[in-house]
């Protein structure tokens, strides 16, 4: 098969380009292809057009060179981090690979490709397996609209499902727009008049390692892959990293330093001693000789702000902390900000049991060691023996099926709502933060632990190597710890247990029940109008400190969902009676 040429002046795995912050398109189908209106604009700017032609916007950082046109009537739009310079030769190759359906070649092009190719009568939306970009589209018979921002595709207020909004309040990672389609990772969606065809092109296959690979050998392979994923950021200017006190971000930082990258570490600093991880993060930086920048976080009235504009519910904690971090990172001129996302999925346990030990592809001596560890664990012998069945996991009581559901005693009960299932292809909170916090400041989040090589390693890693029962303790992510054991002091890589990371958020709720009463309990609140928040139940929760603490996370998530509904009402014309009405 023909080899994909390297972009002019670059090489596979070359320096990343982080100027492409999103894209939008309106493409009519049918008849003679109308003229193209194309602009390269600062993030979020949407020109007003009066003609019915093809309208295309490439959002980019100031001073970004225009993407070369594939032809007079074709345009290529990109979003996210691109590896190597975007030259005419690179654009020509990508265009022909897409138009000719040569998907195997597309998978071999370096980087986390994501974007759109608009041709005369077809549009190709593409997203590689490791791309974390969100691409959305809405197709009728004669018109296609696509955007990295789902709010661009709305025709009016309330275009979301009531059940989805209820689940967002509960904390589920759910997409609330049933009328909008998404491009899954590792696929190309070909859109023509009235039809959409999806083709998978970038599968993640298990890493090719010998049978009975040991845990130590997995750790050595993992380190090589982490360094490989970090290497492109060496020699391209200063790179930031979000450094918690955990091992995932510490591993990414160690790899960046190994590659010689100029790196600065940013840490969310809290005044709450129960959640303060700064000693661990500072120890990592001191050991590696990396500047440590603690960023103070807001615990006061600014924690919730009714002026926020959301394209999707950000139903997680501490959105204000993201704003404060982004302000400091942008002030320092950082374009690429790495973090340790995916560490749990790559190295952590999903299930564990005697079946995984006895039938796993690992050496006999390690099976014996793991069996001895099980006998010293907290689990009783009958339960261990039952886990010899592939249908039983010893973690069933630690990792509830469908995800851990937050208590939400103030919501109107909605029977039959499914449990939240973790979807690695869908991260609405992170997409929302990208559109509202990071991209407006020209910052690209980078995820070295989500590289294709490490995902392939995860597909090969036996379940028995994701947890290590030892002397009565359960050691999570043993391969990651083994990988770091010679690179950090013992106090860092042997860290076990957790701080009470939710303490600042619970403290905020306990100190500000009146704010939640005003935001969620009044008759004009959108969630009250929709019958999702029960004012009586809410008043009962807000009156009891114990129930406030129990419901703290879901109260914050629900407040953020209410702010989303208010921003939606401001963004679009009101419906009948001026109310938001879900489908």
From TrEMBL:
Matching Pfam families, A to Z?
Answer: Asn_synthase
Record-linked SUPFAM superfamilies: Adenine nucleotide alpha hydrolases-like (SSF52402), N-terminal nucleophile aminohydrolases (Ntn hydrolases) (SSF56235)
All copies of the Asparagine synthetase domain together span: 237-351
Instruction: List the InterPro entries hit by this protein, alphabetically.
Output: Asn_synthase, Ntn_hydrolases_N, Rossmann-like_a/b/a_fold
Q: What is this protein called?
A: Asparagine synthase-related protein
């Amino acid at each position: 098969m023909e080899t994909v040429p390297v972009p002019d002046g670059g090489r596979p795995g070359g320096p990343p380009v982080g100027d492409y912050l999103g894209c939008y398109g309106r493409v009519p189908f049918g008849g003679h292809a109308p003229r193209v209106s194309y602009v390269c604009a600062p993030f979020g700017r949407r020109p007003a057009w009066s003609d019915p032609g093809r309208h295309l916007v490439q959002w980019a950082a100031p001073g970004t060179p225009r993407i070369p046109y594939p032809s007079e009537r074709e345009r290529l739009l990109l979003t996210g981090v691109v590896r190597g310079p975007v030259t005419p030769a690179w654009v020509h190759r990508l265009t022909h690979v897409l138009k000719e359906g040569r998907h195997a070649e597309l998978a071999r092009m370096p980087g986390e490709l994501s974007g759109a190719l608009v041709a005369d009568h077809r549009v190709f939306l593409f997203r590689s397996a490791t791309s974390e970009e969100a691409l959305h589209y809405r197709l009728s018979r004669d018109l296609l609209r696509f955007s990295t921002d789902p709010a661009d595709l709305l025709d009016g207020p309330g275009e979301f499902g009531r059940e989805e909004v209820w689940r967002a309040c509960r904390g589920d990672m759910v997409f609330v727009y049933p009328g909008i389609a998404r491009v899954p990772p590792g696929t190309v969606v070909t859109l023509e008049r009235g039809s959409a065809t999806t083709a998978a092109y970038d599968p993640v296959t298990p890493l090719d390692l010998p049978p009975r690979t040991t845990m130590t050998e997995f750790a050595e392979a993992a380190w090589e892959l982490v360094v490989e994923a970090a290497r492109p950021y060496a020699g391209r200017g200063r790179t930031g990293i979000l450094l918690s006190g955990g091992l995932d971000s510490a591993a990414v930082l160690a790899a960046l330093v190994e590659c010689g990258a100029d790196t600065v570490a940013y840490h969310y600093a809290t005044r709450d001693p129960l959640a303060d991880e700064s000693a661990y993060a500072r120890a990592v930086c001191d050991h590696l000789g990396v500047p440590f920048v603690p960023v103070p976080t807001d615990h006061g009235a600014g924690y919730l702000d009714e002026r926020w504009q959301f394209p999707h519910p950000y139903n997680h904690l501490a959105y204000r902390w993201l704003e404060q971090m982004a302000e400091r990172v942008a002030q320092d001129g950082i374009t690429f900000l790495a973090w340790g996302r995916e560490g749990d999925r790559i190295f952590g346990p999903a299930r564990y049991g005697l079946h995984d030990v006895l039938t796993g592809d690992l050496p006999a001596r390690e099976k014996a060691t793991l069996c001895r560890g099980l006998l010293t664990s907290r689990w009783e012998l009958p339960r261990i023996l039952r886990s010899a069945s592939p249908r039983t996991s010893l973690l069933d009581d630690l990792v509830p099926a469908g995800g851990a559901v937050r208590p939400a005693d103030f919501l109107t009960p909605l029977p039959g709502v499914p449990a939240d299932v973790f979807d690695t292809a869908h991260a609405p909170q992170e997409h929302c933060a990208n559109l509202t916090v990071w991209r407006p400041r020209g910052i690209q989040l980078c995820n070295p632990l989500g590289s294709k090589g490490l995902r392939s390693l995860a597909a090969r890693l036996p379940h028995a190597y994701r947890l290590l029962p030892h002397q009565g303790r359960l050691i999570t992510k043993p391969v990651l710890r083994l990988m770091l054991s010679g690179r950090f002091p013992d106090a860092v890589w042997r860290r076990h247990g957790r701080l009470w990371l939710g303490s600042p958020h619970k403290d905020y709720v306990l100190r500000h029940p009146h704010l939640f009463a005003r935001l969620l309990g009044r008759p004009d609140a959108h969630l009250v109008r929709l019958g999702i928040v029960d004012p009586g139940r809410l008043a009962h929760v807000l009156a009891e400190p114990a129930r406030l603490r129990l419901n703290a996370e879901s109260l914050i998530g629900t407040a953020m969902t209410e702010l989303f509904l208010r921003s939606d009402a401001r963004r679009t014309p009101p419906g009948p009676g001026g109310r938001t009405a879900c489908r």
